[in-house]
Write a structure and sequence with these properties.
- The protein has one domain: Up-down Bundle (Rhomboid-like fold), CATH 1.20.1540.
- Helix content is 62%, strand content 4%.
- The chain has a two-stranded antiparallel sheet.
- β1 and β2 form a beta hairpin.
- α4 packs parallel to α6, α5 packs across α6 and α6 runs parallel beside α8.
- The protein starts with 15 loop residues before the first helix and ends with a helix.
Amino acid sequence: MSYVTYDEFESARTPSAVYWLIGLCVAVYFVQATLVGDANMANWLGYAAGDLQSRSLWTLVTYMFVHGGLVHLLLNMWTLWLFGPRVERSWGASTFTWYYLWCGLGGWAFHAMFQPNAGILVGASAAILGVAVAYASRWPDDEVLFFGVVPMKVKWLVVFMALINITMTVIDSGSTGGTAYAAHFGGMLAGW
């Protein structure tokens, strides 16, 4: 049984892009929680259905740095911290950052196609799930503790997450709010 470890032959580079992304998300959340409020930050930086028509194109990227609450932020940052450093060490900071943004754009595209009326899109989940796909593609037999208890191979964890998000996209397709399952799956598909 193997657990997520860093191979000795991998580069000793510090995963700077992962730390910058985490820092940026935490900083945006700090401003959101202390100065401007959740609703204002979501309206300014989150993606809403009319943003393309109103030429608010920055929201295609900025939505990835706004979160729907502290738990949302903590889960996303923990998942990025779990999978991101090893992928970044393998690829380098620049490639990792572009890949992260690509997965986030894939999440936006699926959200716009399959849940266009689901409210304002916020959160880094699509990009981070794309990173999880990259990790599972490179180190499929590494194990993580599912729910902190059950050992599970990363490849099966990613397959499980994909199936959950596909199922919930279909079930939740008429919803006007809540979790952006289509964005999650879009980020995973873009990552694949």
